Amino acid sequence: MIWLLWACTPADPMLKCDGIGNDAAREDCRLAVLWRLADQGDLAGVEAEIVKISDPTARDLARVRLAKAFPKLADRVCAPVADPAFKEKCQQVTGRPHLGGGK
Amino acid sequence: MILLACAAPEPAPTGPCAEERFEDLRTLCLVQRASEAARAGDEAAAGSACAAVREARWGQECWFRVGEELGAGGRIPAAMQACAKAGEFASFCVTHAGWRARPTEDPLSLWAEAAAVLPEPQRTEAAALLPARWWFNRVYGTGVADPSLATDPASRTAWALEALRLSDGDLAAARRAWTEKIVLRGPALPPEARLGRYDLGIRIPGEDAPRVPVFGGAERLVGADEAEDLEIALLEAAYFREATGAEAFRPHLDEPRPRLRWTAVRLFRILPSADAEAVMRRLSADPDPVVRAHAEDALKYRSWEGKPNAPGLRKR
After folding, report:
1. pTM score, two decimals?
2. Is the CB of A89 less than 8 angstroms away from the CB of B28?
3. Is the pLDDT confidence value at A12 over 60?
4. Which of B36, B34, B37, B38 lies closest to B50 in space, CA to CA?
5. How far apart are the C-alpha atoms of B200 and B220, rounded to whole Å?
6. Using one digit for the tens of pLDDT, what is the confidence trace for A39-94?
């Protein structure tokens, strides 16, 4: 049984987040994965992980949260955001260049 | 273990934006609410929203947004109080609040005194900027350029802008109006159209002279006397008009009065002209170290080509 659980648990950290039942905890888990990559300036890695989030709303949510945490990356992270409400939140970062001075 | 069991969970947020599921989104929501409240003139709601922001840097951003909106609405004393809480963004806040401020019936003294709530260096910045904006609002675009009002550098800047506008960019006509104390009159501009070109960022070591803020957060030199100051104000006013080309500044490139000459060289070098490079090569051998420095800087960046990141950031 233990072996089965181990075998069924994905090794990919982003896919592991999908298995979390609590909505907020799942989104926090996704953000944590992206945060580590963004902190290293690995934008390609960020994008590679974001596409693994199948729900478009959850993808946009992750993008906004990451943009707020890393304003320097906001222009690129926010560019694909489609949801109007999240787009507006993104603009609170992208439209404020002085925020780009730090994380 | 007992401590863990007794530890109270963090209380759920109440008030504006409590519906947001995540603290980071709640922060963005609060900042937006604060900005909207300030735009509507509701200082109390704006302040409550900013006070609820838990992250220090975003709290400063919140006050910056509030300061901008209150400033744009012409509520300058309240705007400066907000800017005083904007921390690392306080200088931006003062500049944006001041230069977006719409015309009001406030007396000059109310705006001049509003700077007192700010810490340094923003207090000094605001004490210069707010009277400059007040005069800009009082004169530019109103359809009246009365030279009798222009008694100091800030009011002279505003008079020069309006006189040149009402003279359709004719520097000689504006100069004559000044000399002969003629009140120029013409059509007014709506406040939203009272915009122009300005440049930021060219400061040459050795250019030691007082400065006064001009439109948009830029500065101009103050002349050594009223006559030189008027000429400087007129050149800056000419630059403000986007139709003005480099030729307007050429007659002053070899001007004997240093501050006027420095102004002309600075404005000439950031506009395109057929012989810009040749002129700058000549000036790079000038005995005046400030003129030399301007020319060398211009040659280094080919500033007349208006490339991004070159000195002389042209804005509107």
Report:
1. 0.86
2. yes
3. yes
4. B34
5. 10
6. 998 999 999 999 999 999 999 999 999 999 999 999 999 999 999 999 999 999 99
* Chain centre to alpha carbon of residue A44: 13
Peptide bond into B289 cis (omega under 30): no
Backbone angles phi, psi at B86, to 5 degrees: -90, 5
Q: What are phi and psi of B199, to 5 degrees?
A: -130, 150
Cα-flanking dihedrals φ and ψ of residue B179, to 5°? -65, -40
Partner B contacted by A103 (CB < 8 A): no
Closest C-alpha to B166, from B178, B149, B155? B178
User: Which ipTM score applies to this complex?
Assistant: 0.86
For residues B118 and B94, the answer to whether their CB atoms sit within 8 Å is: yes
Residues with Cβ within 8 Å of A41's Cβ and at least 6 positions away in sequence, in order, are none
Contact status of A30 with chain B (Cβ, < 8 Å): no
Contact A46, A66 (CB under 8 A): yes
Provide the 8-state DSSP code for B184: E
- List the single residue in B with minimal CA-CA distance to A25: B22
Task: Look at residues B61, B116, B69 and name the one whose alpha carbon lies nearest to residue B85.
Answer: B61
Contact criterion met (CB < 8 Å) for A98 and B24: no
For residue A26, what is the nearest residue in chain B, using CA coordinates?
B22
Strands, DSSP E only, in chain B?
144-145, 184-185, 198-200, 211-214, 218-221, 313-315
B85-128 pLDDT, tens digit per residue, is 999 999 999 999 999 999 999 999 999 999 999 999 999 999 99
Handedness of CA B174, B294, B153, B90 (dihedral sign): positive
Strand partners, B220: B212
> CB A64 to CB B25 under 8 A?
yes
Q: B30 — phi, psi (to 5°)?
A: -65, -40
Please tell me the distance from the alpha carbon of residue A87 to that of residue A98, in angstroms, as a whole number.
19
- A23 vs B: CB within 8 A: yes
